[in-house]
Amino acid sequence: MGEQSSKPYKPGQPLKVALLGCGTVGTEVVRLLVESHGDLAARIGAPLELAGIAIRRPGRHRDVPVDPDLFTTDAAGLVRRPDVDLVVEVIGGIEPARSLLLAAMDNGASVVTANKALLAADGATLFAAADRNGVDLYYEAAVGGAIPLIRPLRESLAGDRIRRVLGIVNGTTNYILDRMDTSGVSFEEALEEAQALGYAEPDPTADVEGFDAAAKAAILAGLAFHTRVTASDVHREGITQVSATDVASAKAMGCVVKLLAIAELTPDGKRVGVRVHPAMIPRTHPLASVREAYNAVFVESAAAGQLMFYGAGAGGAPTASAVLGDLVTVARNRVRGHRGSGESTYASVEVHPMGDTLTRYHISLDVVDRAGVLASVADVFARHEVSIQTVRQEGRGADAQLVVVTHQATDRALTATVEDLERLEVVRDVSSVMRVEGWGDD
Ligand SMILES: NC(=O)C1=CN([C@@H]2O[C@H](COP(=O)(O)OP(=O)(O)OC[C@H]3O[C@@H](n4cnc5c(N)ncnc54)[C@H](O)[C@@H]3O)[C@@H](O)[C@H]2O)C=CC1
Ligand SMILES: N[C@@H](CC=O)C(=O)O
Ligand code: NA
């Protein structure tokens, strides 16, 4: 705090806001700006005034209560206007969003963005531009939608030592898995519903292949451990391989499948492992009750213990709430002539490889039903030094199945075990392999 921003506020003047993008989130940002105009002015100490709204398709009907002359297809011109104080970016993607934000900051504007893909790919360039220009860069909407998560990590917990962050950070995939679990709808149907509800990214591959959750995990890990983590540091698996069989296997075990994001320090505190993958969790686990597009994140720290953040992780209005919260903050900073805290990456913690990470697996095997099968299967586990916690046989004859749950082992050993099981003559098919979290000793 305390640095002078590069574009001083003139008392009595409104703060001019440029909005980039007017889709699911942008529309709701405009609505809140217009509906709460008087309250926002009172909270900030100056009114906010829309300077322009950059759009891509001018002919399209937009249900927003503003003067149509505010719309422009010249986003680059808008962010360079001398009267623009604050820029809100809700376009998404890397380019042109990055160039627009850099130009905005070089023009002395503070920025608010919901763009986790950009922050996780190249946050360093953006934060450097914010520092260079003495402006704010806020991004509460980028992780967990409406849930206050960035600010608690960046500010409230800045005096503590965080050990682990674990949660559900993608609304679309949680919605799909929830619908598959509770209503038995297909993956494709559930995805279409999530798109219609405004939860999915413009390209839903970003959601279902885990890219969106990986970007959010990188942002959370960087904040939690005061280091720089990019999306490419995150081990990522999406939910496209999760089958109805996996969901049924989870049900039979008293579990539910969730796409989890986990960032944790190794016990010596020297490395951080960051991963996104589907996992079975017991139905009694608090994350199992996170339904539809809701998100929830647990933070475990040395002094505070366990904290849980829960709320709407996606959707136009919830995301706009977080954007407006940031907008009020950067506007207040501008009025008072200072900036908020920037990035904290002093720790430079190394990334822990996924192969060395301790996880546990649930494996369903379709097996030949004869004496000695269990021994051959157990031998494969023993050869890789993977300890079995439970094993049970289901069905008989052609339907015989072995369901194995392991104790924790390195992910490398578990992967090699599954590869060898697939080669075993008595194993007809490895029908389901999934990591297990939140069960017993982890
Ligand atoms: N929808 C959600 O639930 C959430 C979205 N976000 C993030 O918010 C951002 C926006 O997401 P949505 O509103 O859902 O996407 P959207 O696809 O509904 O809206 C993006 C808008 O930007 C416009 N656009 C694209 N290129 C442009 C350009 N060069 N100039 C001007 N406009 C341009 C598009 O035409 C579209 O109307 C993304 O970064 C997304 O990851 C973050 C949290 C939740
Ligand atoms: N597509 C994202 C939107 C919010 O970040 C999600 O589904 O969570
Ligand atoms: Na948030």
Automatic annotation (TrEMBL):
This is Homoserine dehydrogenase. Catalyzes the conversion of L-aspartate-beta-semialdehyde (L-Asa) to L-homoserine (L-Hse), the third step in the biosynthesis of threonine and methionine from aspartate. It catalyses: L-homoserine + NAD(+) = L-aspartate 4-semialdehyde + NADH + H(+); L-homoserine + NADP(+) = L-aspartate 4-semialdehyde + NADPH + H(+). NADP(+) binds at L20, G21, C22, G23, T24, V25, G26, T27. It comes from Thermasporomyces composti. GO terms for molecular function: homoserine dehydrogenase activity; NADP binding. Pathway: Amino-acid biosynthesis; L-threonine biosynthesis; L-threonine from L-aspartate: step 3/5; Amino-acid biosynthesis; L-methionine biosynthesis via de novo pathway; L-homoserine from L-aspartate: step 3/3. Its EC number is 1.1.1.3. Belongs to the homoserine dehydrogenase family. Keywords: Amino-acid biosynthesis, Methionine biosynthesis, NADP, Oxidoreductase, Sodium, Threonine biosynthesis. One of its GO terms (biological process) is threonine biosynthetic process. InterPro entries: ACT-like_dom_sf, ACT_dom, Asp/hSer_DH_NAD-bd, HDH, HDH_cat, HDH_CS, NAD(P)-bd_dom_sf.
